[in-house]
Amino acid sequence: MWRRPVNPSRRLGDSGGGGLLANSKSRSSPILSVGLIVLGALLFIAYSYGNSGASGNNMEAISRVEGDYSCTAEVQRAIPILKKAYGDSMHKILHVGPDTCSVVSKLLKEEETEAWGVEPYDIEDADTNCKALVRKGVVRVADIKFPLPYRPKSFSLVIVSDALDYLSPRYLNKTLPDLARVSADGLAIFTGYPGHQRARVSDVSKFGRAAKLRSSSWWIRYFIQTNLEENETAVKKFEQAATKRSYVPSCQIFHLKSFH
Ligand SMILES: *[C@@H]1O[C@H](CO)[C@@H](O)[C@H](O)[C@H]1NC(C)=O
Ligand SMILES: *[C@@H]1O[C@H](CO)[C@@H](O)[C@H](O)[C@H]1NC(C)=O
């Protein structure tokens, strides 16, 4: 089964989810209720415990060993460094890329940060948290080959990961300027290193084609050709913060200026 980029006219999250509560029986015995509450509490504790501490890092290490490391995961790792590089401009963020719910959820936990997401691919297998974000309109499912449904400068910072690698130059020519259009204080691009990530079968089935990972010199040449300028201030601040925290990204990261 092949999955294609979504049709922009399709809407997700319209299926009702309100049926659960209505089904719970009001005549269930008190002992059963207490039992359920205790069970719920135990599950909650187990869940919180599983989510805390080192588990995130372990996951990351495992994915990298399997060659399955994504730049969307790298964005999450880079948030503290991005905060140093962009300062106050980290307050209203749009993330564009597969698995955007994970980034948006993480950004929403940061202080004084609003975040939205554009998911370029179908999310039929998304978890309930993600589906709730879609239902609330925080995350949109949209084909990024078409203009984004936002006004110019709607966001202070736009971050894109793992999405441009799947676009040919013909579409890049439209999509990249559009990302710069909707941002006010910059555009951060996370993209894979050629040779680092091998073409994966799962990629092809998920995105319809394998990622084309381009070299840093290819991107720089491309930016110049399309009149997109690198933001030297952001580049410098990002590098300084990265050095200070010994942060070594597993993806190429570019900082572009917004259109003025
Ligand atoms: C993309 O835009 C650049 C600059 O405008 C142009 O030189 C190039 O031919 C375009 N590429 C495609 C594939 O349309
Ligand atoms: C360049 O980056 C800085 C953050 O380091 C940001 O404040 C500024 O608005 C950016 N400039 C443009 C033109 O995007």
UniProtKB/TrEMBL annotation:
GO MF term (any one): methyltransferase activity
Source species: Juglans regia
Signal peptide: none
Record's protein name: Pectin methylesterase CGR2
Keyword set, alphabetical order: Membrane, Transmembrane, Transmembrane helix
PANTHER family according to UniProt: PROTEIN, PUTATIVE-RELATED, S-ADENOSYL-L-METHIONINE-DEPENDENT METHYLTRANSFERASE-RELATED
GO biological process, one term: pectin metabolic process
Transmembrane segments: 31-50
Record keyword Membrane present: yes
InterPro entries in the record: CGR2/3, SAM-dependent_MTases_sf
Tagged with keyword Signal: no
